[in-house]
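Troubleshooting log. The previous structure file for this entry was overwritten by mistake, so regenerating from the original sequence record. Sequence copied from the archived sheet and checked twice against the printout by T.R.
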Amino acid sequence: SLLQQEIRQEEGHEWLDGIVESCQRAKITITQAIRTAQDKSKKPRHWVTTG
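Regenerated output below.
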């Protein structure tokens, strides 16, 4: 039974690692989306000021 618990813990850690990786990827995509959104919001203002 101890061996089974150890195996379950290892599987759980792998599962958590996968969640951490997906969260980090999500953060990267969110930051990129925010940057692109800011760039898009900046462009019209530039057009208004220059035009």
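The chain has one helix and no strands. Archived copy saved in two places this time.
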